[in-house]
């Protein structure tokens, strides 16, 4: 046993020069990776690529440099190894690792694809699988969604890749619709004119390329309903602010014009006359 320990120590001492060179190679690899990240960062900062894509290219550059540096260090320490054998070993190992970390790699690949999407950017308001909010950050494995109530939701990228994603702010303006009812004795054309003028008076209503549309929609239970459609800003707060302004303006306009906004009436009909009872006299009264 002592002989085996002696031989192992002798072999280790013999490998010390190669280990020292490998350590130097790893230190140089670290410095080269830092330099590569800096150069790629400076080069990409002059382009119009999104910051998330720039971070992706910087990360891939660093990984590539480290892979080559570790391969060179391994060949120095173990001269029997060749780049081809290392790559073959990495291929077999990657299959096993791929099965073990399937979800991780799935999210990683989905993240790369999402980063190349132009339709969804950081700052956009999106909705996916009941999660709605502002895209705060897009990473390689996950995306951060800041909901309108302030909560931060961390979403796996595979979820955003596999399911429909509604990008609320893909355009500067979105359509908004409300239903407004008037009484049956109100002139329909007059009501339409009053509602149109009320909506046109609102500052939050876009009146350029998107016309205001007022349509008599249906005969409801106690009113004639109008579908009121206009375009406004695409963010959630702009949508709420515009709806508030339009509802207020339409209500004021109909009131000023003397046009009734009805509420449900209920008429009770009795087939037989109800018996009438005389009020009970108090004690002492005649």
Automatic annotation (TrEMBL):
Function text: Mechanosensitive channel that participates in the regulation of osmotic pressure changes within the cell, opening in response to stretch forces in the membrane lipid bilayer, without the need for other proteins. Contributes to normal resistance to hypoosmotic shock. Forms an ion channel of 1.0 nanosiemens conductance with a slight preference for anions.
Primary subcellular site in the record, as a coarse category: membrane
UniProt source species: Sulfitobacter indolifex HEL-45
Complexes and interactors: Homoheptamer.
Coiled coil: none
PANTHER family the record matches: SMALL-CONDUCTANCE MECHANOSENSITIVE CHANNEL (PTHR30221)
InterPro entries with a match to the protein in the record: LSM_dom_sf (IPR010920), MS_channel_C (IPR049278), MSC_TM_helix (IPR008910), MscS_archaea/bacteria_type (IPR045275), MscS_beta-dom_sf (IPR023408), MscS_channel_2nd (IPR006685), MscS_channel_C_sf (IPR011066), MscS_channel_TM-2 (IPR011014)
Top-rank taxon: Bacteria
Pfam families the record matches: MS_channel_1st_1, MS_channel_2nd, MS_channel_3rd
Record keywords: Cell inner membrane, Cell membrane, Ion channel, Ion transport, Membrane, Transmembrane, Transmembrane helix, Transport
RNA-binding in keyword set: no
Protein name as catalogued: Small-conductance mechanosensitive channel
Segments crossing the lipid bilayer: 12-35, 56-78, 84-116
Membrane topology: Multi-pass membrane protein
Family: Belongs to the MscS (TC 1.A.23) family.
Residue ranges of domain Mechanosensitive ion channel MscS in the record: 103-165
Compartments it resides in: Cell inner membrane; Cell membrane
Residue stretches making up the Mechanosensitive ion channel MscS C-terminal domain: 178-261
């Amino acid at each position: 046993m002592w002989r085996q320990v002696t031989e192992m120590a002798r072999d280790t001492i013999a490998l010390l020069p190669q280990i020292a060179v490998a350590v130097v190679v790893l230190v140089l690899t670290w410095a080269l990776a830092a330099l590569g990240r800096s150069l790629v960062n400076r080069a990409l900062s002059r382009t119009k690529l999104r910051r998330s894509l720039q971070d992706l290219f910087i990360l891939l550059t660093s990984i590539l440099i480290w892979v080559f540096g570790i391969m060179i260090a391994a060949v120095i320490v173990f001269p029997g190894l060749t780049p081809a054998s290392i790559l073959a070993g990495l291929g077999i190992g990657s299959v096993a690792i791929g099965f073990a970390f399937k979800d991780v790699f799935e999210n990683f690949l989905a993240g790369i694809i999402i980063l190349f999407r132009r339709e969804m950017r950081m700052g956009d308001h999106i909705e996916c699988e009941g999660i709605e909010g502002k895209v705060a950050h897009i990473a390689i494995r996950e995306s951060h969604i800041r909901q309108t109530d302030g909560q931060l939701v961390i979403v796996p990228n595979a979820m955003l890749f596999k399911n429909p994603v509604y990008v609320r702010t893909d355009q500067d303006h979105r359509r908004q619709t409300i239903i407004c009812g008037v009484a049956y004795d109100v002139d329909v054309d007059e009501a339409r004119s009053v509602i149109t003028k009320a909506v046109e008076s609102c500052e939050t209503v876009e009146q350029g390329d998107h016309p205001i549309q007022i349509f008599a929609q249906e005969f409801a239970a106690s009113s004639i309903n109008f579908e009121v459609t206009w375009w406004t800003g695409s963010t959630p707060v702009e949508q709420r602010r515009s709806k508030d302004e339009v509802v207020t303006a339409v209500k004021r306009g109909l009131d000023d014009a003397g046009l009734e906004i009805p509420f449900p009436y209920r008429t009770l009909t009795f087939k037989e006359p109800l018996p009438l009872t005389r009020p009970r006299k108090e004690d002492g009264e005649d």
